[in-house]
Write a structure and sequence with these properties.
Elements lengths: L1 E5 L3 H10 L4 E6 L12 E4 L4 H11 L4 E4 L6 H14 L3 E4 L12 E4 L2 H6 L7 E5 L14 E6 L11 E5 L6 H10 L4 E5 L8 H8 L4 E4 L9 E3 L2 H10 L5
Parallel strand pairs: 1-2, 1-4, 2-3, 4-5, 5-12, 6-11, 7-8, 7-10, 8-9, 10-11
Helix pairs in contact: 1-7, 2-3, 5-6
Length: 245
């Protein structure tokens, strides 16, 4: 039995570890991070060439099931996976960590896109902690605010004129996030609803400091695709459920 995991997330690595030794596992990484944390099992790096390329790869490598465990905002690969799985007649499961839920004291401003997030900054603050990753900074390039941009790898231009880059990789601690907000005098946080615990402490730190949060809503899972919320659920789907041929 051969399982393809479209990965790059903590959940994808956990799932590969659960399945390794039980079935043949190939994890596919996009290659956008210079030194990714590699999962157990076989690993391939790079794209497939769209829906047709992925469907062809599934057939050529006798894949029995696909699990889309990419980042919740990796919209293109998720829709390519849905199209390719349907074309190749291979079961597909989306593994998505639950989104964040506001708590008492949160000042969240939810928006549908990075462009909308840039437009929402006026009047909220002048020193922005931007944690949306190194892709998409062009949406903020014309903003007059000062930005602290945190990402795993160095971002590419265009980016805001007043930018300081902080290269770091989660998980992050609450004490560390409190210190960062205070040290850089942050007065507004911009982030995506990635969910999970690895980067959630910044939300708690922002709540404690009464800092508003501009939160980009995640895109939906493609219509008709079954979803699991934990690696254990996804592993059960493979070993005992619809993922088993």
């Amino acid at each position: 039995m051969h399982i393809l995991i479209l990965g790059g997330t903590t959940e994808a690595r956990s799932l590969a570890g659960l399945l390794h030794g039980e079935v043949r596992v190939t994890s596919s990484l996009a290659g956008r991070v210079a030194s990714p944390r590699l999962p157990a099992g076989e690993v391939r790096i790079g794209g497939f060439g769209g829906v047709e390329g992925l469907a062809r790869w599934l057939r050529e490598h006798a894949v029995d099931a696909v699990i889309d465990a990419t980042h919740p905002f990796a919209e293109r690969i998720s829709f390519n996976a849905a199209g390719a799985a349907a074309t190749a007649h291979v079961p597909l499961l989306a593994l998505r960590r639950p989104g964040w839920v506001p708590e008492k004291g949160d000042d969240w401003h939810e928006v549908p896109s990075l462009d909308a997030a840039a437009g929402a900054l006026d009047g909220l603050g002048d020193r922005v902690f931007l944690t949306t990753g190194r892709m998409g900074l062009a949406a903020f390039a014309a903003c007059p605010q000062w930005f602290l941009v945190r990402s795993v790898d160095a971002p590419d231009a265009p980016m805001p004129a007043r930018t300081e880059v902080l290269l770091d990789r989660g998980p992050f601690t609450l004490d560390g996030e409190r210190d960062l907000l205070a040290r850089h005098r942050i007065d507004v946080l911009v982030t995506k609803d990635s969910g999970g615990t690895a980067t959630a402490p910044k939300l708690t730190a922002a709540r404690e400091a009464n800092i508003p949060v501009v939160l980009v809503r995640r895109p939906p899972v493609p219509e008709g695709v079954q979803m699991a919320t934990t690696p254990e659920e996804a592993a059960a789907w493979v070993l005992w459920g619809p993922g088993r041929p």
